[in-house]
Design a protein that fits this description.
Rossmann fold, RNA-binding, SRP, 440 residues, binds guanosine-5'-diphosphate, globular, 21 helices, 3 domains, 60% helix, nucleotide-binding, cytoplasm, 434 Repressor (Amino-terminal Domain), Four Helix Bundle (Hemerythrin (Met), subunit A), alpha/beta
Length: 440
């Protein structure tokens, strides 16, 4: 998602950086490029017009043009404006004191509503809540079955109310939640392929009947210009508190996702990046803007690492600090990288990483992992614990055993050497910090 937009914006910035001092004509031309890039990404034309006007006005000031690094300033302004377009700060779900809280999802058919309901239930369950899913989409064939199956997979009960009217199902689900001590009801409502009066009225009726604490609209990231009509009608009729953008993992141009906040004034609360229940993530405008501009999402990487890290990993990190870095640790690290979505996933979040990936045609040779793994597996237990004993003879044997070359083994030894050096530096820092604390 956003790849071609990202490429085009970066090309514009590269051209500016190549210039040194900027003239008004340079900025006008850069703004024209940005305008075209956004329009081609299918961002709503009015949103583009406002965005470019604001950005241009800020770039045309003497502060920017006469600064020592004008191109950098322009990039910073585009980043600021893009962050603002996406909503500036994170917008969390708001819960009331009422039990159960009711969250209602609305949106067109196929937007990803049913799967979003399940993903949200999964997320809330992980946060210690006990959700109940209410299957109020009684028109789409198998919608309730789909919800029941997915709910079963994540261990969240689904209230179906077979045969009843959707308004009745929603009300009964709330009663069921009170009986069964569930503290959040997530209501999946019916969608249509297009805006339809009956669908709107039903959503209004359900809303009136169960008075949801939050109404969230699910919007498919592939929606382009048309998004304005759809969200405006929902905003008028049912109103909603926030947006879930689904299918952000796809390769659509993303214009709808970029326009929705400006068009509705409602915050994007979550984005969905896949079909699995764990693929719903809170939305951070600043991080997304940085990713679009190829500046990397460093915080995202740290969080992913924290998620992948279990108690065992933490314990082994502590041991590494105490006893040094072994080949077994290196093996563990490679496994951890795989768990975080592989090098491709991580690289995509690094500054300039997406650009690098694109240059490589999206291909990243992960076979180097397999090679390293084979070499480590060919080492004796002692060699793994004390890699420094691996001499020329041992290297030749490891290469033979793993079907690699001594040059490959040398490469691995070099990597280990670097990491070991880093680890001992960290050990010294940790010791100094510890001594500092004790001294106080
Ligand atoms: P509904 O009609 O709005 O309830 O839509 P569904 O929840 O059934 O989703 C429609 C299709 O989109 C299904 O095949 C989902 O698996 C798929 N889908 C939903 N969200 C995502 C997402 O974030 N990424 C991808 N790749 N597919 C999604």
């Amino acid at each position: 998602m956003f790849e071609s937009l990202s490429d085009r914006l970066n090309n514009t910035f590269d051209r500016l950086r190549g210039k040194g001092k900027l003239t008004e004509a340079d900025i006008t031309s850069a703004m024209r490029d940005i305008r075209m890039a956004l329009l081609e990404a299918d961002v709503n034309f009015k949103v583009v017009k406002d965005f470019v006007a604001k950005t241009k006005e800020r770039c045309m000031t003497a502060d920017v043009m006469e600064s020592l690094t004008p191109a950098q300033n322009v990039v910073k302004i585009v980043l600021d404006e893009l962050t603002e377009l996406l909503g500036t700060t994170e917008s969390k779900l708001v819960f009331s004191n009422r039990i159960p809280n009711v969250i209602m999802l609305v949106g067109l058919q196929g937007s990803g509503k049913t799967t979003a309901a399940v993903k949200l239930a999964y997320l809330l369950k992980k946060q210690g809540r006990s959700p109940l899913l209410a299957a109020c989409d009684v028109y789409r064939p198998a919608a309730a079955d789909q919800l029941a199956t997915l709910g079963g997979e994540i261990g969240v009960p689904v209230f179906r109310g077979d045969g009843a009217h959707p308004v009745q199902i929603a009300q009964d689900a709330v009663r069921e939640a009170i009986d069964k001590l569930r503290d959040v009801v997530i209501v999946d409502t019916a969608g249509r392929l297009q805006i339809d009066e009956q669908m709107m009225q039903e959503a209004v009726d359900i809303k009136r009947a169960v008075k949801p604490d939050q109404v969230l609209m699910v919007v498919d990231a592939m929606t382009g210009q048309d998004i304005v009509n759809v969200v405006s009608t929902f905003a008028e009729r049912t109103d909603f508190d926030g947006v879930i953008i689904s299918k952000l993992d796809g390769d659509a141009r993303g214009g709808g996702a970029l326009s929705v906040r400006a068009v509705t004034g409602k915050p994007i609360k979550f984005v969905s990046m896949g079909e699995k229940p764990d693929s719903l993530e809170p939305f951070y405008p600043d991080r997304m803007a940085k990713r679009i501009l190829g500046m990397g999402d460093v915080i995202g990487i740290i969080e992913k690492a924290q998620e992948a890290a279990d108690a065992e990993t933490v314990a082994s990190a502590e041991r590494m600090l105490r006893e040094g870095f072994t080949m077994n640790d290196m093996l563990e690290q490679m496994k951890a990288v795989k768990k975080m979505g592989g090098m491709k996933g991580i690289l995509g979040m690094l500054p300039g990483g997406q650009k690098l990936l694109n240059q490589m045609g999206g291909n990243l040779d992960e076979s180097v992992f397999a090679k390293n793994e084979a070499m480590i597996m060919s080492m004796t237990a002692e060699e793994r614990m004390r890699p420094s004993i691996i001499n020329g003879q041992r290297r030749a044997r490891i290469a033979r055993g793993s079907g690699t070359t001594p040059a490959d083994v040398n490469q691995l030894m070099k990597q280990w050497g670097e990491m070991n050096k880093m680890m001992s530096r960290m050990r010294t820092m940790a010791q100094q910090a510890g001594a500092g604390k004790k001294g106080k």
